[in-house]
Amino acid sequence: MVWPASAFIVPIVVGVEDIDAQGHASNVSVVRWMNEAAWEHSKALGWDVEQYRQLGGWFVVRRHEIDYHRPSYLGDALHCITWPCGLGKAVAERQHRIVRLADGALVAEGMNLWAYIDASTGRPLRIPPELRQAFDPAKFA
Fold first, then answer.
1. What are residue 76's phi and psi, to 5 degrees?
2. Residue 141's pLDDT is what?
């Protein structure tokens, strides 16, 4: 289980709202945790809602791919580890690992493919230089 030393880490505690009928954290919660980690990382890099509004563009998810390895349960302390790993003309790729702290078990791993779009039209846009610099995968390798 490997991730870059410069990856962004979001602590999570599995709550009652995360538990499904099978008694463990649901796949919907895993997707939410990954999205929240991506957003928190963006904000930490200086890209909050206002910054995106000023540019007139947003990143939106085009695809999630997730492999589930172990269940997590109510009260489990987890880390959602995330980092940018690819950057195209109008798309950005981000990797995630969710790890249980008690035993180091890999709970899930996945990737998101994000499209950069015009906030008013919803059409794809080239990722501007300032975003390319902030999310440059070479910084996180």
1. -60, 135
2. 82
pLDDT, one tens digit per residue, over 20-57 is: 999 999 999 999 999 999 999 999 999 999 999 999 99
Answer for the pair 52, 119: CB distance below 8 angstroms, yes or no: yes
| pTM value surpassing 0.85 | yes
Pseudo-torsion of CA 73, 28, 139, 40, nearest 10°? -90
Sheet of 57-68: strand order equals 8-13, 77-87, 91-100, 106-118, 57-68
Residue 85, amino acid? C
Burial (0-12, 13-18, 19+ Cβ within 10 Å), 125: middle
Environment class of 51 (CB within 10 Å of its CB; exposed 0-12, middle 13-18, buried 19+): middle
Residue 57 is predicted with a pLDDT of: 96
Structure tokens at 51: 């910054």
| DSSP count for the chain of H helices, then E strands | 3, 5
Give the 3-state DSSP-derived string for 69-87, with helices as H, strands as E and coil as C. Answer: CCCCCCCCEEEEEEEEEEE
Provide the token pair at 24.
């463990």
User: In order of start, what are the domains of the chain with their CATH numbers?
Assistant: 8-140 (3.10.129.10)
